[in-house]
Batch of 2 targets.
Target 1
Amino acid sequence: MKKLNIIPVTLSLIILMTITSCEKDSPLINALTGEWEIQELTVDIYKEGVRKESHTEYLEKNKIIFRFEDGGSGSYYKDSESHSFTWTLNDSILVISNLTEFESDLQCEVTINGSTLIISYEEADDKDMAIMYEYILTGNKIG
């Protein structure tokens, strides 16, 4: 009799663990899906790992908008021009592909706190490898 009770309990635990492990990955994807208006663009400039400068541009309304759709497709609107892209998310690493402004995939860190999105990525200077640029885009969910 006791052996029969162990099987349902074991199956219930396996199902519960499977459901909770899937839920860990989905909240960021679910939160990212939608339309985001970028309101700030900050560029931090580092030389040999030390931050030397920081510049923040506050953008006009509807200047830059990202739309992340279910299934990994998306749209990028800048100055009334629309560009399509594809995207994947692994933990907090967002990879945007086929974005016309970049020669290769854009790999960035993404965080979402409520209705605020922060995307950050780094680029090395073409002429001086000791100089690194960190771009931080901050926006709010609009749809």
Target 2
Amino acid sequence: MSKIQKHAAFIISVLIAYLIKDLVLYLMGDFKKMHDDRYFAVGIGMLLVIVIFYPLYELLKELSKKIVESFLRRSKRSVNSRFLGLTLGFVLALGILYGVYAYLWYNINIITDIQSALKL
């Protein structure tokens, strides 16, 4: 895997892991409301970080590597350029993640915003 592929896989892995972290924090908010003992909640939160995030990051790193390699093989056939295929796949993945983050953080639906902008 080239340096560019490794960096692209790393960036996508980190963004996906952060999305999963937000989900866990959302669930932890409910957990914290159920328990009055803040020290216990802190301990459980730290345990979740260790148990979930390290294996999750390693899994996403390997999964991203396989996805990037697979996408490059397919895109190389269609665009006849490995770099262009990687660039298009990376931009597509970032666009999807951008849409998910916008929805989760600000309740913005990018698809409906684009549709309404195109109807002008």
